[in-house]
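Risk register update: the risk of archive-format incompatibility is retired. Evidence:
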Amino acid sequence: MQFTSNLTAWAGGFMVCLALVASIGAQNLFLLRQAVAGRHVSACVAWCVVSDVALTAIGVVGMAQVLAGWPGLAFWLTLGGAVFLLCYGLRAWARLLPGKGGAVHMAPQGLPATRSKVLAALAALTLLNPHVYLDTVLLAGSIGAREVGSLKLAFLAGGASASLIWFLSLAFAGRKLQAVFARPAAWRVLDAFTGASMLALAAWVGLLSRDM
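Archived output:
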């Protein structure tokens, strides 16, 4: 009986977190670029998984209720995230300008070089993105908070499994696309798509902050 309950909670965490993490966002696009370039991929995957699990755990233990009770905090988090996403999108589009990319060195120029800089950039993309809090802390966290006792741990284990599978798959896909991205034109297409996605996301997040 207990095993069945744990399995159900695990499956619930897996499905919920997989549905939330498997979307085109700043974190996923950054990891994809790193995987294509072959730079510090393992560290990026580790950060993505650990941060997802940690934020979901915060939501499970009650941060979802805290944020719901402090609309002012939610507003500033959302507004700050919109500004950050706007800057990130404009930076991606700036690499399309003449002299800013297009040569065979475009991939290294568009990415941080050292592991510490890579993780700092990824941490900023994760923690300054309001979607991360909406997905992990509020949505997944509030769902997991309904579980009782040890079932909360089973829910988190399911979420961790989903994050690990997704981010490893994304890194693997990036590796397989290295031949495609050996051409500068492919990086330009990815930058154009990244810029459009981030600007659209920034606009949507900005509208959310206006309604808070």
